[in-house]
Design a protein that fits this description.
It contains 15 helices and 21 strands. By secondary structure, it is α/β, with parallel strands linked by helices.
């Protein structure tokens, strides 16, 4: 019998002994082996459905309820829900739980696309708030309490505020002040904490959103903690959120056949966190500190560090996210990522024109970081690597005028036109450059000459742009 295609490739990848600085947080199952929680011998025996003794995710009364209660106690919320459709379903459910069609919601402009999906599905009107940008690294930074307050004052009928904390690069806004601001105006604060499920494990890390007082927090447990991809948790505080409505929305947005493998992995992660989490995080932070000292000795190589605190509205930095930059040496992030993977068998999370992002977790050990350090030094010293210094021009990232709502834009008829001739037209697509991940345009917004000119510059430099159906960026879909 021939091997299944996907299974066969996964098997080959698993035998490469690749050092993982990417998600998921169990790092290729290494932590499961360490704690004898590996279920790979016969994974099929755990793939069951709702039978006597297995409980029901949508109406838990037994083992799922007990496991959720343990997570609830650990994180300190009043309600915790296991998610098997990822943080995406949690974000969509949270938005739909606190709004009705036509309501306004205040949104951080560089939000995850699932936030926009939630607004489209819920028929919600977005009021965008622009984050700060570090133009030298071209990284999205923090959103300030002042900008949130200004948006609330201008839109007093907005039902809620949704922010990302921390962002992809571990950069944290002043969430405690944002909580105070939002609650002062009696609004609900929703936090996309996809990249922060581990923050609870050490006081050397930024404060968790739930501890800061947020009303609803969703976490991609699989990203920075040891659970399987697509498994997440949603935590809620009593007082401002209609729990019954939230449960209805979760039922709408989650599978009616939830995976017991995913739920079991969430419980496995909690078992490790409760018993060993603080110890493992302290070891990881020490290893990261040692790694940082080694990197600081390499001229021309830099890390996003706590030196950013106090700038661009940044309140704190998650040190478990390693944003590595060789811009001054003329080594692009995309090139650095390729060398690390092909020559040193090290896989990072992502790369852009300037940076690579290495995501660590409690499953990484000192040896992993030592291999990365040695590889970076070797790359630095290698004279055969071509060097090319690329400078991106500054862009205002001003939010374009919204002519129609995102929902209406999605359902409207569209046609492709030359991008160069699209000035004044209503976009039917996104244009999102990486870096910094802030949309230049969203569906329903008016295309300006500045956007057209900047996209041409990005195209000429080979910068990664997502959201358009025409990957060549010659055309864009507009609303007819």
């Amino acid at each position: 019998m021939k091997r299944p295609i996907i299974f066969n490739e996964l098997l080959k990848l698993s035998k490469r002994n690749m050092v993982s600085f990417h998600v998921p947080g169990h790092k290729n199952g290494k932590i499961f082996e360490k704690y004898n929680l590996n279920i790979n011998n016969n994974i099929g025996q755990f793939d069951i459905t709702e039978i006597p003794g297995s409980d029901n995710l949508h109406a838990p009364e037994g083992i799922i309820k007990e496991a959720q209660k343990r997570a609830e106690a650990f994180y300190g919320g009043d309600h915790t829900f296991f998610l098997v459709n990822g943080t995406t379903c949690g974000i969509i459910s949270m938005i739909m739980a606190v709004t009705n069609p036509g309501d306004k919601i205040i949104v951080q402009r560089d939000c995850h696309r699932s936030v926009v999906s939630g607004m489209i599905l819920g028929g919600v009107t977005p009021i965008y708030v622009k984050p700060q940008v570090d133009s030298s690294l071209l990284l999205s930074m923090a959103v300030t309490p002042e900008s949130i307050e200004e948006a609330i004052k201008e839109n007093p009928d907005a039902k809620a505020v949704i922010i990302t904390y921390p962002n992809y690069y571990g950069i944290c806004s002043d969430i405690e002040k944002i909580v105070q601001t939002v609650h002062r105006y009696n609004k609900i604060l929703i936090v996309d904490e996809a990249h922060g499920s581990h923050l609870k494990l050490s006081d050397k890390l930024p404060i968790s959103a739930l501890d800061a007082g947020a009303d609803m927090v969703v976490q991609s447990t699989h990203k920075t903690l040891p659970s399987f991809t697509q498994s997440s948790m949603l935590h809620v505080r009593d007082g401002r959120v209609d729990i019954d409505k939230l449960k209805v929305m979760l039922t709408l947005n989650q599978s009616s056949s939830p995976s017991y493998l995913l739920m079991a992995s969430l419980d496995m992660a909690m078992t490790i966190l409760v018993q060993e989490g603080n110890f493992l995080m302290e070891k990881l932070i020490k290893s990261i500190n040692d790694f940082t000292k080694e990197i600081e000795e390499i001229e021309g190589l830099s890390l996003v560090s706590k030196e950013l605190i106090g700038k661009y509205g940044v309140k704190d930095i998650d040190v478990t996210k390693l944003t590595i930059n060789m811009k001054s040496l003329g080594i692009e992030g995309t090139r650095l990522e390729e060398i690390l993977r092909k020559k040193y068998n090290i896989q990072v999370e992502m790369a852009d024109i300037y940076n690579v992002l290495a995501v660590t977790s409690i499953a990484n050990d000192r040896n992993d970081l030592s291999r990365l350090s040695r590889a970076l030094r070797s790359i630095h010293d290698d004279k055969k690597i071509p060097h090319r210094k690329t400078e991106l021009p500054e862009f205002s990232f001003e939010i374009p005028k919204m002519r129609v709502l995102p929902r209406e834009a999605v359902y409207s008829g569209k046609k492709s036109v030359e991008l160069a001739q699209s000035r004044g037209r209503i976009s039917g697509e996104y244009i999102i450059p990486y870096p910094p991940g802030i949309p230049l345009i969203c569906p329903g917004e008016v295309i300006s000459e500045e956007i057209i000119e900047y996209v041409q510059i990005l195209k000429n430099l080979g910068i990664s742009v997502i959201g358009t159906s025409d990957e060549s960026l010659n055309t864009i879909k507009v609303i007819e």
